[in-house]
Structure formats: C-alpha cells, structure tokens
Amino acid sequence: MRVVVVGAGYAGTIAANRLARKVTAAEITVINPRADFVERVRLHEQIAGTGAAAAPLASMLREGIATRLGTVDKISDGEVALGDGSRLDFDHLFLAVGSTVTPLPGTVPVGVWEGAERARAALAGLPGGRTVTVIGGGLTGIETAAEVAYGRPDLRVRLVGGTIAASLSAGARKRVRTGLERLKVEIVEGSVARVGSGAGEGGSDAVRLGSGRQFASDLTLWAVIGGVPDLAARSGLEVDAEGRAVVDEYLRSVNDPRIFVVGDCAAVPGARAACATALPQGAHAADTLARMIEGRKPKPYSMGYTGQGVSLGRRDGLLQAARRDDSVRRLYFAGRTAAVGKERICRYARFGARTATYAWLRAPK
Ligand SMILES: Cc1cc2nc3c(=O)[nH]c(=O)nc-3n(C[C@H](O)[C@H](O)[C@H](O)COP(=O)(O)OP(=O)(O)OC[C@H]3O[C@@H](n4cnc5c(N)ncnc54)[C@H](O)[C@@H]3O)c2cc1C
Q: Which end of the chain is more exposed for a tag (fewer CB within 10 A), N or C?
C-alpha cells in the first residue's frame, strides 16, 4: 500500500511516523520542499538569533519512511504531480501543507521559513539604534516583537496591530502589554495601509497607517499568518472560503476518501490553526487509516483545547487557560514559570511529531 504525505510540518510528520508504527506494510513517502523539519513555533527565535527552528528531517522520521524533496503541484486521481515534472502514485494521501503568508509589499514575512531566513539575515546586518517594525497584533506578532527586542536590545522595536493579543482574556492582554513594555517594545494600535520599501529618509521604509500617521522603519516584518496554499483548490478538492479543504468527521476530503487533510490546511469545525491542533489531527488520521486497513470501524475525530501560550522573550511568557471549546477563561499564568511552560510545550510538540506519541483531550460533549 502506497501512502504519500504532502508536507512535513507537525501534522504530516506525526501522521507519517504514526502510520509507520502501526502499519509496517505501508510504503510511506513524505514530500517536502526542504530536507529540514521546521519548527514553525520557533521561527521568531530563528529570526532573533535566540534559537534554531530547523532540524534534519531524517532525524524526525522513522526508519523506512522515504523522503522526496520537492513541491506538489497537483493532486489528481491516485497520483501527485511534483514541480519537477515527476509523478507519484498513491493509495492513500495525507495533505498537510500548513498555512502561508500574504505579506504587504515592502515587508518581510516571518511566518514561513524562507521569509524568516531573510528576516534573520536582515536583522543580523542592522546596526544598533535602527528601528524594526513588526506588523501583526496576534500571537505571532507579539512573539516576534518580544523576541527581537530580547535578542537585540540595541534596536528600537515597534509592534503595530489592531487589538493586541485579541485572542486572550482582558487580564492576559494587559499582562502581555506589560511584558512588551518591559522589553521596551513600542505598541501602536492601528492598521498598516502601505509600506514604502526604502521610501523613507536614508533609505528606511515609510510605514503608513490607515489613520494617515506615518513613521520610518529600517526593517519591516510581516507577522500575520494569512491563508493556506491553494493546492487543495487547484486539485479540485472542495474548499471553504479560506481555501482550506473540507473534510468529513474522519478528516477525509469530502471529494476523495483516499485523501486525509490535516493541520492548518484542513477545514475542521472549531479548529484553530496551531501545532496543538495539527498534531492530534495528524495522529488521528493515521490511526483512522490503520483501523480501516485492519477492517475496523474508524472513530470520528474529536479534540478539545487547554489554552494558548505566548513567549515574551526567553525569560517571560504567558499561558492562557481555555475551556475545551477554546473559549478563554480569566485564568492565566505569566512570568518566568510561564516562559518555561511555553518552552516545554514547544519541546513536547517536536517530541510528539518525532515519536508519534502525543496525548490530547476530547472535544466537550
Ligand atoms: C512564529 C510562530 C509562532 C507560533 N507559535 C505557536 C504556538 O506557540 N503554539 C501553536 O500551537 N502554534 C503556533 N504557531 C502556529 C503553528 O506553527 C502552525 O499552526 C503549525 O505549524 C501548523 O502545522 P502544519 O503541520 O499544519 O503546517 P506546517 O508546520 O506549516 O508544515 C507544512 C509543511 O508543508 C510544506 N508544504 C507546503 N506546501 C507544500 C507543497 N505544495 N508540497 C510539499 N510540501 C509543502 C511546508 O513547506 C511545510 O514544511 C506559530 C506560528 C508561527 C509562524
């Protein structure tokens, strides 16, 4: 039985490893654009030089799993076409291509590996006293601004976004602001209308807000995750308004039961784009396929949340408690203990992808 896994992020890696563990007869091939597993949750560390986000993919996959470097251009009836013109047949496929970014012209996107590497190089070349602007008031923007301020205290860091940390409780939002202020991050609430790359004084960027306010920036980072790769849509699979593939209760494409869709690119009701979502989905889909092969009845996917974590540099952080339906509670933990907790969560995510051992809660009744 030939199984193709498209994308070696959290969802694809755990799916491949879990299936290899359960179905020894499966011939599994993982297709990924690079020979590294990218811990996306550490891209802000990679940029700021405080941590590394890439590990050899070979160190993450079980023995016997084949890898193919490349990008899938199209999925058709039992076959994938790669960018280099080659083709691969499959009996079952896991679509796990994650999410992507749509940066404003003149900005460098931090949410994908290639952008993060550009940002890292640009930041490393920036002399002290210069200004870095991070666009995006969500957790990715907050973590990026905080990490840059922590790793490069000689720079001025500005964070621009709508409501800062909108996904957290009111108390947690306030605490995030305090953490950012301690790191001397300037917070600007507003939306960016345009970035004139190199249009400002001395070749700096000119960042213009919707309100008309304008300021100069020497490096402007786009820290908003927006949309998913259009592979599912391009391949004729049914997608939702955001381009995510629509799945049944077993995480299979509603068009083709041979195709499981997992992680950020799957339209699962109530799911939030997160490694905390991608891992259970990848694991569950692999379990489902293993059950089907053994002639057992598959179980519907079910997952409940526990909260959200945000790092504020390496010594501060915040853990927001949530109900299983992902609605936030008032309770949160902040400070050094929360930073250690967040670090452990990141390590557990990587451990889960590599070992295929990962525990999660069921959805509320
Ligand atoms: C800075 C940052 C911090 C974050 N922090 C957190 C956090 O603290 N907690 C949390 O839960 N989530 C966090 N996230 C979100 C989390 O990283 C994503 O939700 C998670 O990576 C999704 O996993 P995935 O497996 O679906 O996709 P990804 O991890 O994005 O992996 C997808 C893989 O597919 C590959 N691919 C794409 N297109 C193709 C193609 N056509 N052919 C072959 N391969 C392809 C990609 O290159 C990639 O390797 C953070 C994200 C960022 C950017």
A: C
| Whether pTM exceeds 0.85 | yes
Amino acid at 228: V
The token pair at 314 is 């390496």
| 87-89/259-261 β-pairing | unpaired
CA distances in angstroms from 301 to 93, 245, 284, listed in the order given: 17, 16, 7
**H or E element: which one contains 52?**
none
| Cα 10 to averaged position of ligand 1 atoms, centre (Å) | 7
The preferred substitution site among 36, 40, 82, 230 for testing ligand 1, maximizing ligand atoms within 8 Å of CB, is 40
Unique residue bearing structure tokens 């205290």: 153
Which residue in the block uniquely carries the two structure tokens 């490694």?
Answer: 275
- Distance from C-alpha of 361 to C-alpha of 239, rounded to nearest angstrom: 27
- Would you call 355 helix, strand, or coil by DSSP? helix
Tens of pLDDT, residues 292-307: 999 999 999 999 999 9
Task: Please give the number of the atom of ligand 1 that sits closest to the Cα of 44.
Answer: 1
Residue 291's φ and ψ, nearest 5 degrees, are -65, -45
CA 71/CA 81 separation, integer angstroms: 9
Largest CA distance in the chain: 68
pLDDT in tens, 88-142: 999 999 999 999 999 999 999 999 999 999 999 999 999 999 999 999 999 999 9
CA of 206 to the centre of ligand 1 (A): 30
Closest listed residue to residue 285, CA positions, set 273, 269, 272, 298: 298
CA of 161 to the centre of ligand 1 (A): 22
Comparing CA positions, the residue from 87, 200, 80, 41 lying closest to residue 133 is 200
Please name which of 273, 278, 276 lies closest in space to residue 243, comparing C-alpha atoms: 273
Q: Is 56 helix (H, G, I), strand (E, B) or coil?
A: strand
| Cα 312 to Cα 325: distance, rounded to the nearest angstrom | 26
Contact 75, 237 (CB under 8 A): yes
